[in-house]
Design brief:
Strand 6 and strand 7 form a beta hairpin. This protein is elongated. A four-stranded mixed β-sheet has the order 1-2-8-3, sandwiched between helices. Helix content is 44%, strand content 12%. It has 15 helices and ten strands. The relative contact order is 0.10.
Length: 322
């Protein structure tokens, strides 16, 4: 999700762009990127880089259909022009042909005016605004330049692209639209949610077959509240959960116990623990071993209070915990 009142300037050739006439003239620098796009990455290349970044974590097949690009940027927000330039990438195919006061969204006109917040001195060159919003006193609140390349990138993403005007006073419709697109597309063709448990694909961006469980994936996932950070904090702030974890590791795993001895030690800790302590510990460790770090931390090679299966994490000794 990108928010901007200016145009994209993703440079591929910085020295080339900086040598352009518009950059050398301080009064034309505002139009330098739009007039020298041969020095920028194409929108197709930007899409490819975004997809490749996701594929490195989730695999190519999943990445293609699970990356969305949304932009709240400078496009018209009223009338037919607003309708043509707001919506999914598949719905805004005519946006670049929309006329502005000078030029079009695809080829905005250049105007000469005083720089912002100045009343005297030399004028500078700018692209025509794509949209403006004023308060009750007619003071400008938002003045946005055409986000031409953002529109192009959203079109590259098709139904997984989205554009909304930054000049709208209310952005709630954009958040609702984005949520709907995510909901509609984070499922398989059959309508079933994507299976996030896999023996061959990472469980999260923290995970990987060549990553160390404890020094890499473990800390990464505990530091992210959207992964296992909340479950970790809930356990640590509960004295019963902390005591149960301490019993398991101090008395069992750090003592190099094997098989039956280890199982017996686990049962002893479970029998002395409270139900809420066991539940919080289980949620915390299921999150790490079964969901967020299945490749780097699994499979579990020793007896453990939890067991990860294809259908999720299950209690490996439910009778003891009960």
């Amino acid at each position: 999700l990108l928010v901007s009142d200016e145009e994209d300037c993703s440079m591929e050739d910085g020295p080339g762009l900086f040598a352009a006439d518009e950059v050398q003239d301080q009064y034309k620098r505002n139009i330098a990127c739009g007039r020298n796009q041969e020095f920028l990455y194409s929108t197709a290349e930007i899409k490819e880089m975004i997809i490749n970044a996701k594929a490195a974590v989730s695999g190519v097949s999943r990445a293609v259909q699970s990356v969305m690009f949304a932009a709240i940027v400078g496009v018209p927000n009223q009338g037919d022009a607003g309708a043509a330039c707001q919506g999914s990438g598949a719905e805004i195919t005519g946006c670049l042909d929309v006329a502005l006061e000078e030029g079009t969204m695809g080829d905005p006109g250049i105007i000469e005016r005083m720089p912002p917040n100045t009343t005297a001195g030399p004028t500078a060159y700018y692209f025509e605004y794509a949209c403006e919003r004023f308060d009750a006193d007619d003071t400008p609140v938002t003045q946005a330049y055409p986000g031409t390349r953002f529109v192009q990138l959203a079109r590259e993403f098709g139904h997984l692209g989205y554009v909304y005007s930054i000049c709208n006073a209310d952005w709630a419709p954009a958040m609702n639209d984005i949520a709907r697109i995510i909901t509609d597309n984070l499922s398989t063709d059959s309508g079933e949610p994507f299976d996030t448990d896999s023996d061959t694909e990472p469980g999260s961006y923290c995970d990987g077959a060549n990553l160390d469980c404890y020094t890499e994936c473990w800390g990464c996932t505990l530091g992210d509240p959207s992964l296992c950070g909340v479950a970790y904090t809930d356990c640590q702030e509960n004295s019963n959960c902390a005591a149960y974890e301490e019993c398991l590791f101090d008395n069992c795993y750090l003592q190099s116990l094997l098989d039956d001895e280890l199982r017996s030690c686990i049962a002893t800790c479970q029998n002395s623990a409270t139900a809420d302590g066991i539940a919080l510990f289980t949620a915390y460790y299921e999150c790490i071993y079964c969901d967020a770090c299945p490749l780097s931390c699994g499979p579990l090679e020793k007896p453990f209070p939890i067991e990860c299966t294809d259908s999720g994490a299950v209690d490996s000794d439910s009778s003891s915990q009960q």
